[in-house]
Amino acid sequence: MPEERWGTGMIGTSRAPGARDAHRAPAPPCDDLAALGIAPDDLPDGLVIADEHGRVICVNAAAARITAVCATDALGRRLEHVLPLEDLDGRRWWQLTDPYGGLAIRVGQPERNLLLPGGREVLVSARYVRTHPTGPVRRVLVSLRDTEARRRTERSHAELIATVAHELRSPLTSVKGFTATLLAKWERFTDDQKRLMLETVHADANRVTRLIAELLDISRIDSGRLEVRRQPVDMGAAVGRHIQAYVAAGQPADRFLLRVEQPLPPLWADPDKIDQVLGNLLENAVRHGEGTVTIDITPSVSPREGEEEENTATSVTVSDEGPGIPEESMNRVFTRFWRGSKRGGTGLGLYIVKGIVEAHGGTITVGRARGGGAEFRFTLPVGTPAYLQ
């Protein structure tokens, strides 16, 4: 007995070894699909099936949601009336494709963007089921997909490209301008002027390097390839180094308050990536916050997935006394391109921070500090390498 195969929103047929096309059983209607163990409503994509006469015999729940057509009203109606699809040039798709006529060797239509009434765009593909390769069409299976998720991805990629182009243009213009000036008029400048120009070029080159590193991190996070090389990490010392760098750069020492609760559990993490997390969080607090920046490092507990017992972890809380983050923006803080203010930045830092923390098996949250400012808290499990356990 041949079998009907279901997959990716459409039905195909497979031939049993030695079986002949003429011996194939007719395709079961949707009401008989329970015998196969699969219901049309279980499919993630929209599915509409028409019989050999072009009348709809099945509309699953996803198709009803995408097309806003009631399944019970669609049954028995002509396929072109249930799905009055048009291409992007306004031509009626069923007249162009003519599934029941035309060449008898056609097996379907590849996926393409089409329009429903009202201009809603959907991804549509079709499969023509025949009793034999050149026989009449006995079923037309139409798969429907909502384009909104794909459009969000495309918009995100477009925003990323635009952000990268904007962020690269400024430092590269500066580098090109200063180097061209130095090459053309080297003898006219004093040593102090040359040093100032070269320091500017150096700073802009570092800015470009940092942006490229962020893009690589995003690529690894999105593809699940972010590697964590665990080593012993002294979280208190790591935070202290960042504070010293800010003080050396001109920030007042009394703006930072570091509190470490002892004893802390031995933490195994990637030192470079932890420095990246701390750098982003402290930079946000200094740049966008006000008043004292408080960093609390405390022992904590973190239940591992699949285990009932709680395992030791370290929590780091970075808070400030600024205006804080509006409540309606809390759920967007860790998304791409979110900016707390218009004071520079690519809007990628906190997205990368979340990816790094989660790659360590930890969690990160955002809230409002007691002083009214923003409060970021991330928790990292001990993460002891297996060979030391």
UniProtKB/TrEMBL annotation:
<dbReference type="InterPro" id="IPR036890">
    <property type="entry name" value="HATPase_C_sf"/>
</dbReference>
<keyword id="KW-0067">ATP-binding</keyword>
<dbReference type="InterPro" id="IPR003594">
    <property type="entry name" value="HATPase_dom"/>
</dbReference>
<feature type="domain" description="Histidine kinase">
    <location>
        <begin position="163"/>
        <end position="384"/>
    </location>
</feature>
<feature type="region of interest" description="Disordered">
    <location>
        <begin position="297"/>
        <end position="325"/>
    </location>
</feature>
<dbReference type="InterPro" id="IPR035965">
    <property type="entry name" value="PAS-like_dom_sf"/>
</dbReference>
<dbReference type="InterPro" id="IPR005467">
    <property type="entry name" value="His_kinase_dom"/>
</dbReference>
<dbReference type="InterPro" id="IPR000014">
    <property type="entry name" value="PAS"/>
</dbReference>
<dbReference type="GO" id="GO:0005524">
    <property type="term" value="F:ATP binding"/>
</dbReference>
<keyword id="KW-0547">Nucleotide-binding</keyword>
<feature type="region of interest" description="Disordered">
    <location>
        <begin position="1"/>
        <end position="25"/>
    </location>
</feature>
<dbReference type="InterPro" id="IPR036097">
    <property type="entry name" value="HisK_dim/P_sf"/>
</dbReference>
<keyword id="KW-0808">Transferase</keyword>
<protein>
    <recommendedName>
        <fullName>histidine kinase</fullName>
        <ecNumber>2.7.13.3</ecNumber>
    </recommendedName>
</protein>
<dbReference type="InterPro" id="IPR013656">
    <property type="entry name" value="PAS_4"/>
</dbReference>
<dbReference type="Pfam" id="PF02518">
    <property type="entry name" value="HATPase_c"/>
</dbReference>
<dbReference type="InterPro" id="IPR004358">
    <property type="entry name" value="Sig_transdc_His_kin-like_C"/>
</dbReference>
<dbReference type="InterPro" id="IPR050736">
    <property type="entry name" value="Sensor_HK_Regulatory"/>
</dbReference>
<dbReference type="InterPro" id="IPR003661">
    <property type="entry name" value="HisK_dim/P_dom"/>
</dbReference>
<dbReference type="Pfam" id="PF00512">
    <property type="entry name" value="HisKA"/>
</dbReference>
<keyword id="KW-0418">Kinase</keyword>
<dbReference type="Pfam" id="PF08448">
    <property type="entry name" value="PAS_4"/>
</dbReference>
<keyword id="KW-0902">Two-component regulatory system</keyword>
<keyword id="KW-0597">Phosphoprotein</keyword>
